[in-house]
Specification:
- The chain is an alpha/beta fold and about 325 residues long.
- It has helices spanning about 15-25, 50-60, 95-105, 120, 125-135, 150-160, 185-195, 210-215, 225, 260-265, 285-290, 295-315; strands spanning about 40-45, 65-70, 75-80, 90, 105-110, 140, 170-175, 200, 220, 230-235, 270.
- Helix 1 (about 15-25) packs across helix 12 and helix 6 crosses helix 7.
- The structure holds phosphoric acid mono(formamide)ester (CP).
């Protein structure tokens, strides 16, 4: 594996799942693989799970890890090309990226959609600059349009808990007070279809996702109909994708919150969310605190997903001098 930015970089998914389950049994079996190798994890946005799980996975493989928060301690970075740099950003990504490449064997990047330009967000301008200028393998730690390490962990979790070959998985929009990117739902939809599950996406009118991510999924505005007979309920908020409302909140309709009554419509479904989750906005305490919630084992699988990806990248690196 050279870079990891989407499910397309993963190869056959059954093989990836088997690898993940093997690693889960023996997390430290390859603790020499990353000897004298450095992972740089750069965060343009906040993180709890991605930061900790990726660092832990790298350490399980014997790597050194450097974490850089752009907002805290690093120079504020300019990302636009051709700009006169007379503002508050003293360094450009065009220098910063190759410099980072000098100190690292691979670079993980978290850079969310900024909602200033849909073209820039969906063109993955920041992530692609890292791929173009670092000279090193790049791992998405959630980009503007995808969160593939999360989706891989979601896939591992469903494989562990499913009771039928092709479970019915429902991705439901839920209300949130802030405008959130579409990266998690895009990535989840794309990955679940690739995994061969029966995916239904439900959301209020106006929240249609980019069809290139949702092809193969059933889409309905009727949340209760979607929940009927579901095996897994995956809740997530996202802002509008379609123009003219790109990046905006169109609805805060609390009736879309996941609650116990809706869960009763399902096939005794398990509840999933990538976290962080807003209690009693996205999902009620009752559901989140119930035995049907698997959000913690789902988060634990972030470490395993990251270890598969980092391990594969390490195996593809040229020999250390
Ligand atoms: N799910 C997830 O990516 O969590 P963090 O934003 O805390 O990393």
């Amino acid at each position: 594996m050279k870079h990891f930015t989407s499910v397309k970089d993963m190869g056959p998914l059954d093989k990836a799942i088997q690898e993940a389950l093997n690693i889960k049994k023996q997390k430290y079996a390859a603790s020499d693989l990353g000897k004298n190798r450095t992972a740089l994890l750069i965060f343009f946005n906040s993180s709890l799970r991605t930061r900790l799980s990726t660092q832990k996975a790298a350490e399980n493989l014997g790597m050194h890890v450097i974490v850089l928060d752009v907002q805290q301690g690093a120079w504020n970075l300019e990302t636009r090309k051709g700009i006169i740099m007379d503002g508050d950003k003293p360094e450009h990504l065009l220098e910063a990226i190759p410099v980072m490449g000098c100190y690292a064997d691979m670079i993980g990047v978290r850079s969310f959609a900024r909602f200033q330009s849909k073209e820039e967000d969906y063109g993955e301008v920041i992530l692609n600059q890292f791929i173009q200028y670092s000279g090193k393998p790049v791992i998405s730690l959630e980009s503007a349009t995808r969160h593939p390490l999360q989706s891989f962990a979601d896939h591992i979790t469903i494989e562990e808990y499913k009771t039928t070959d092709r479970p019915r998985v429902v991705l439901t929009w839920a209300p949130h007070p802030k405008a959130l990117p579409q990266a998690v739902p895009n990535s989840f939809a794309e990955w679940m279809v690739a995994a061969g599950y029966q995916l239904t996406i439900t959301h209020p009118k106006g929240y249609e996702l980019d069809e290139s991510f949702t092809q193969g999924a059933k889409i309905t505005y009727n949340q209760q109909e979607a929940f009927r007979d579901a095996d897994f309920i995956y809740a997530k908020n996202w802002s509008a994708y379609r123009d003219p409302g790109y990046g905006r909140i169109l609805s805060t309709d609390r009736s879309w919150m996941v609650d116990g009554k809706k869960m009763e419509l399902t096939n005794n479904a398990l509840f999933m969310h990538c976290l962080p989750v807003r209690r009693n906005m996205i999902v009620t305490d009752e559901v989140l605190d119930s035995p049907r919630s698997i959000v913690i084992p789902q988060a634990a699988n972030r470490e395993i997903a990251a270890q598969v990806v980092l391990g594969r990248i390490l195996k593809g690196l040229p020999k250390n001098e």
